[in-house]
Write a structure and sequence with these properties.
With about 220 residues, the protein is mainly β. It has one domain (about 15-215): Alpha-ketoglutarate-dependent dioxygenase AlkB-like (Jelly Rolls, Sandwich). The protein is built from two helices and 15 strands. The structure holds N-(carboxycarbonyl)-S-(naphthalen-2-ylmethyl)-L-cysteine and fe (iii) ion. N-(carboxycarbonyl)-S-(naphthalen-2-ylmethyl)-L-cysteine binds near residues 124, 149, 182 and 193.
């Protein structure tokens, strides 16, 4: 089912799907905020444009990335880590736009995590064929805080695994406007994104953009 807001297809807003005891999809939760999020993203991209980072193993990531906030996630031959400076510009990352911060706080609260104050926002951009292989998010200082992820543009199939890499992963479709909140016992679950299929989105064309807000430091 789709809702339609200014010509943007959205998942039926207000539906909440549990992925685990402390992880849930808030369908269409970004709803009316989408234009403000995209405008704010344009301002982040001016000082901190998309780039393809290198993994410690020497591979180029298929998703392009950037960051905003006091800390940004970076990867290169030396490893994965959070850094206060953009290695491309040598400048601090741009600030987290208020529209991102508000949405993250509201979504976290709706999922039962009060008082979420992110200090890092990783932005991933997928084009057809781009993917994210199964991994855990373990570069943050404290796993007590939830993670809020906002999906924009083309749909993707999210892989939702278990606590061991070998655990069978469920496939969860994520649509434009969906917000996912993960925390507590589900914080260290393995997860990934299947290669994107080319299904152009009316607003964003052949791309999927994912905002991932975290408390990293
Ligand atoms: C599930 N990004 O950047 S949403 C990542 O769609 C990442 O771009 C995906 O996985 C994307 O690390 C997935 C974000 C996400 C983040 C943390 C999680 C999903 C998670 C932690 C535990 C379980
Ligand atoms: Fe992740």
């Amino acid at each position: 089912m789709t809702g339609d807001l200014f010509g943007e297809p959205l998942a039926t807003p207000g539906q909440r799907e549990a992925l685990g005891a402390q992880a849930c999809v808030l369908r269409g939760f970004a709803g009316a905020d989408v234009p403000a999020l995209l405008q704010a993203l344009e301002r982040v991209l001016q000082p901190a444009p998309w780039r393809h980072m290198t993994t410690p193993g020497g591979f180029t990531m298929s998703a392009a990335q950037t960051n905003c906030g006091p800390l940004g996630w970076v990867s290169d031959r030396r490893g994965y880590r959070y850094a206060a400076w953009d290695p491309l510009s040598g400048q601090p990352w741009p600030a987290i736009p208020p529209a991102f911060e508000r949405l993250a706080r509201d979504a976290a609260a709706a999922a039962g995590f009060q008082g979420f104050e992110p200090d890092a926002c990783l932005v991933n951009r997928y084009v057809p064929g781009a993917r994210l292989s199964l991994h855990q998010d373990k570069d943050e200082t404290d796993y007590e805080h939830p993670i809020v992820s906002v999906s924009l543009g083309m749909p993707a199939v999210f892989l939702w695994g278990g606590r061991e890499r070998a655990d069978k992963a469920a496939r969860v479709p994520l649509f434009h406007g969906d917000v996912v909140v993960w925390g507590g016992v589900d914080r260290l679950r393995f997860h990934g994104v299947l290669p994107l299929k080319p299904v152009p989105h009316p607003l964003l064309g052949e791309q999927r953009i994912n905002l991932t807000l975290r408390r990293a430091g």
